[in-house]
Amino acid sequence: MKVIGNLLLIAGVVLLAVFGYQLFQHNQSQKESLVEAKERIQNSPKDTDQALRDFKAKYGEAFATLEIPKLGKTLPVVEGTDPDALEKGVGHLSESVYPGQGEQILLSGHRDTVFRKFGEIEIGDRFVLTMPYGSYTYEIRETEIVPEDDTTVIREMGEEVLVVTTCYPFSYIGDAPDRFVTYAYPVK
Question: What is its EC number (predicted)?
């Protein structure tokens, strides 16, 4: 009986060590991406109109920051929404446009990493997306919860809308069955 108890204790310590290492590694990747994004913003040409028209990010590149004043967070935005990109920060869906281009901008992130306190977000809260060619403020006007496989969120909207998604429920353990979606519109 003592042997089984010791084995369970060792297994628990190993699992905690693996989890701790993964969390440390993710935090390091996110910090590096934030530095990369801030450098790109700072070192970009200031011809806003030309930069807006010509802007394109490479897959996996941290190119912008997303500030969430309500949560006191500034997060890196990385091109792509696959697991590798989302490990570095908030992912930008490559098929969507960039701020200032007049259509849907879609960002995604994990609820247990970059959007850890996203459950505190409410209608009326703001996002500030800082790009190499300028800063854009959006106000949340609506939210919805959709099943994880609902792709109708990705669509032409006929106007500029920042759509930010994450897994839902926020406190769910494992792969969450739904997605929490915010729709934020430019603040004039």
Answer: 3.4.22.70
